[in-house]
Design brief:
single chain, alpha/beta, Urease, subunit C, domain 1, five-stranded parallel beta sheet, 15 helices, 40% helix, binds zinc ion
Length: 479
């Protein structure tokens, strides 16, 4: 769709996911360019946009595209990994035996294909925006552009950062810091150029950091509100004081937040206390890592004082229940943190491509843990459908993840013709007991149809998967 063209999604149930959980039956959404212009009844909106290109959503469900607040596309080629991996008896052993071996083996071509294959699964499951945390600890320079190239092609909206750590020595640390800065400046220049471009200026050149640029694409330069950056850090236990200080300084200079794993395992807490006398959140706070644009992923082993620090600093916390269960590291006190005013969103930590799966588990885990069936009732909807849009809107400085006039047009259509009434107020029940990612049929991001009737329109999914399988086999051998 060219800038300024109109797309009408007409018929079916339209779930606004506003405070009242309004569901319009026989609703419609009108999109002009990359923004939603009208939401209402099919009769009213349809009449106003008569003649527009139309997607018939009769008997289907229309809702905002989903947002993943913390993920790692670099792990996409590890699915089904066949390699000589020692069994792990702790979280730090899982990192040493598996993930740190993977992130050192990744080449830029692996990174590119991992992101491309991961993006296909995300879109197929209705995710339209991701906040990714990237690590390829040997091939660092240009790695964020390799991820960005694939995501840009897929049509996703994304915020990227590189995982800085002291665990691989000085050279890797310096390269990691430099990669964050390089990509942040590139993303900022594309945003500025895009704003100029929308008033008739030249397209920005997509400095891809590799020989496989995509400057010849007719879409080059469009949708640069789809690209954002953060300053990435691994976790307190692999970061020296001086590195934390420099990363915080860099983030402040660039006007960005940091994205870091915090108190995911008890080992992180023990390390922080032994090296600084402070718990993890307090150590990060003392170096200026926290703040309204910063994301602290996990925050499982935090005490009351740390929870207050997270709330007062406005820091975003990303909850990843499936990954936490898989790593046997415990479960964050989500009801408690929400009650204390922490802005907590939902991520997958790369465990799954489906936010629908993550929402189900987020609902069940707190209930299971507390042995109280009253607990967790609205956790999933609050984290994923209310807070994630707030988080993405903050990071992208725009209205993301909402079905309302003026918001960026990220919309999904699901083949969901419910056998019970779907009406204002009962969306939560359908979410947990009815909806799954494989029901997603059509995905629109930034006003562009990136998947229609389950077929991606932006990339050749079959070809990417075939190449990804080949690279994965090769990567596994190199691990
Ligand atoms: Zn993570």
């Amino acid at each position: 769709m060219s800038a300024g063209s109109t797309l009408l999604i007409r018929g079916g149930h339209v779930a606004l996911l506003d405070d009242e959980l309004t569901v319009l039956s026989d609703g419609a959404v009108a999109i002009v360019g990359n923004r939603i212009e009208a939401v209402g009844s099919a009769a009213d909106v349809g009449a106003r946009y008569d003649g527009a290109e139309t997607i018939d959503a009769s008997g289907k469900l229309v809702m905002p595209g989903l947002i993943n607040a913390h993920t790692h596309l670099y792990s996409a080629l590890a699915r089904g990994l066949v390699a000589d991996i020692e069994p792990s008896s702790s979280f730090t052993e899982i990192l040493e035996h598996l993930w740190w071996r993977l992130d050192r083996a990744l080449t830029l071509d692996d990174v590119r294909l991992s992101a491309a294959a991961g993006a296909i699964d995300l879109i197929r499951n209705g995710t339209t925006t991701i906040i990714d945390h990237h690590a390829s600890q040997v091939h660092i320079d240009g790695s964020l552009s390799a991820v960005a190239e694939s995501l840009d092609e897929s049509g996703l909206r994304f915020n990227l950062c590189f995982e800085v750590s002291d665990r691989n020595g000085e050279e890797a640390r310096e390269a990691g810091l430099a990669e964050n800065e390089r990509f942040a400046r590139l993303a900022a220049s594309r945003q500025v150029a895009s704003r100029r471009g929308s008033s008739g200026g030249p397209d920005p050149s997509p400095d891809s950091g590799s020989s496989e640029g995509r400057g010849s694409s007719p879409d080059a330069g469009r949708g640069d509100g789809r690209i954002g950056a953060s300053v990435g850090l691994h976790a307190s236990f692999t970061l020296e004081d001086a590195t934390l200080e420099r990363a915080a300084g860099m983030a402040a200079d660039l006007g960005l937040g940091c994205h870091i794993h915090a108190a995911e395992d008890v080992a992180d807490v023990e390390d922080s206390v032994s090296r600084s006398g402070k718990r993890v959140v307090e150590r990060l706070e003392s170096f200026g890592i926290l703040g309204p644009r910063s994301i602290a992923a996990h925050c499982i082993h935090v005490d009351e004082r740390e929870t207050a620090v997270l709330a007062e600093s406005g820091t975003i916390v990303a909850h990843n229940p499936q990954s936490n269960m898989n790593n046997a590291v415990g479960c964050a006190d989500v009801p408690g943190m929400l009650g204390s005013g922490v802005l907590m969103g939902l991520g997958t930590d790369g465990f799954t491509a489906s936010m629908f799966d993550e929402m189900k588990v987020a609902t069940l885990v707190h209930r299971h843990q507390s042995r109280d069936p009253r607990v967790g009732h609205d956790v999933a909807a609050r984290l994923c459908l209310v807070n994630n849009p707030t988080i993405a809107s903050r990071l992208f400085d725009d209205r993301v993840g909402r079905l309302e006039p003026g918001a960026l047009a990220d919309v999904i259509v699901l083949d969901y013709d419910a056998p019970t009434p779907l009406q204002t107020g009962n969306f939560g029940g359908h979410l947990i007991f009815g909806l799954t990612g494989w029901m997603v049929e059509t995905v629109i991001i930034d006003g562009r149809v990136v998947m229609r009737d389950r077929e991606l329109t932006t990339v050749d999914a079959r070809e990417i998967r075939a190449r990804a399988r080949e690279r994965a086999r090769d990567l596994w051998k190199r691990m």
